């Protein structure tokens, strides 16, 4: 399980290697994404709180990167943080996410990105629930919910 210590370690010393890489030009991403998805994932934007479609959804499934389809989070580790953004306590795999120190807006935060395609997802904070103590605060627009096939039977 990842903790804040691991997050800081990755943001300072470099991230774990992803299983694969997806790289496209800015024009290709713009073509593939909606204007809002492009603004958030490729331009490090943020959606308004409580605006995201995935904010209050707790159906079973995996949350995948909207840009490259790589699974990032599982519904079992989603929790209601009350912030207005989908929140998770762990990534689905240790190497699914990359971490970078973000000093924009006069704050020191840790930005989280898709480790496969560098899509901006949101930030991670050390004030989440036990046992990991992590709160991944993620834009709905950065993800799509892939519902478990078993739930449709
Ligand atoms: Zn991605």
Automatic annotation (TrEMBL):
What EC class is this? oxidoreductase
Q: Which HAMAP family match?
A: MsrB
Which protein is depicted?
A: Peptide methionine sulfoxide reductase MsrB
Q: In the record's cofactor note, how is the cofactor described as bound?
A: Binds 1 zinc ion per subunit. The zinc ion is important for the structural integrity of the protein.
Query: Required co-factor?
Result: Zn(2+)
Which sites bind Zn(2+)?
A: 65, 68, 114, 117
Segments spanning the bilayer are none
Q: Which NCBIfam families match?
A: peptide-methionine (R)-S-oxide reductase MsrB
Gene name of this polypeptide: msrB
Query: Which reaction(s) does its UniProt entry say it catalyses?
Result: L-methionyl-[protein] + [thioredoxin]-disulfide + H2O = L-methionyl-(R)-S-oxide-[protein] + [thioredoxin]-dithiol
The entry sums up its family as follows: Belongs to the MsrB Met sulfoxide reductase family.
InterPro entries, A to Z: Met_Sox_Rdtase_MsrB, Met_Sox_Rdtase_MsrB_dom, Mss4-like_sf
From which source organism is this entry? Muriicola marianensis
- Look up keyword Nucleotide-binding and say if it applies: no
**Which keywords accompany this UniProt record?**
Metal-binding, Oxidoreductase, Zinc
MsrB domain location, by residue? 26-148
